[in-house]
Amino acid sequence: MAGHDHSHDDHAHDHRHGDGPARSGHGGHGHGAHGHGGHSHGVAADADRRWLVSALALIVVFMAGEVVVGFAAGSLALISDAAHMLTDAASIVLALVAMRLSARPARGGYTYGLKRAEILSAQANGVTLLVLSAWLGYEAVTRLIDPPDVTGSLVLVTALIGIVVNLAAAWCMSKANRSSLNVEGAFQHVVTDLYAFIATAVAGAVMLTTGFARADAIASLIVVALMLKAGIGLVRASGRIFLEAAPAGVDPDAVADRLVAQPLVEEIHDLHIWEITSGQPALSAHILVTPGGDCHAVRRELQRRLAGEYGITHSTLQVDHVGEDEAGALLQITTPAGDLPEHCADSHGPVHRAGPHEH
Questions:
Q1: Which domains does the chain carry?
Q2: Which entry of 59, 240, 286, 347 is 20 to 30 Å from 353 by CA?
Q3: Which residues are CB-neighbours of 325 under 8 A, at least 6 positions away?
């Protein structure tokens, strides 16, 4: 009968299903394995929420005062900083909501739960940075052409206070789990705002000492450049997860070559590596082993290497024997009824075989 095995770190147990033999075109048998290397989905949510709420309180209080001073001083740099701080606050609120949603257990059709709500939040943060940078860039160029009068002293004092506030907010957020793209998105908002205040403080000092009014617009353009960089990074990173690309720094071909080089492994195909959400890589593959080889032992060794060498602790491996007379060929599995397509008749993804080969 077909075997179905779930491996959980230090124990393994088999569950047998079905009422008849599973037929194979080569007389082999299949072993489906779903391995969890003792991983934990999500982050220490309560601790992260406390740090995020602390940062949110600092930002909201200062933002209200900055809007008043920005209009009083006629400073676009301060007003742009306040606008960015509004997106900071919104990004933290969005992160908090996404964290709560992602913590909900899987149910119904949502077999992973709502874990990618955090990735939606990160992508929204990236898009708002890009939109805001376009608006501020336009305003800054307009002020470069026709600079208005700006009160340098108010700009300088407010910017210096803003540096302190954003340093405190960034410190709070650095205590949260930044391996979460959701938290990282909100953190990038705050750090970009910190750099913006530094640029604004320099602009205020220049205007106060030299009267060079265009310094305010130049500072705004520096902020725009930083926002573009952070926004593009967040959109790219979240897009990779939505498109189910392999985690950054993980080469699927290198992983396959490493696994197929293990004893008894003849071939690996249907290999897929993706991220369920940030920091939760997953892998699935179909493994063919030498006739007579111990499928369960091979599977356990491969999962150990995946966890230890690549940090992939969520792996699903189907392990089968290569037929006695067709070693190295693609495995063909037929269903008892014969009315379903063969499992590997149309393998998706590259095939990796033992021995020298080219990709």
A1: 3-39+246-353 (3.30.70.1350), 45-242 (1.20.1510.10)
A2: 240
A3: 26
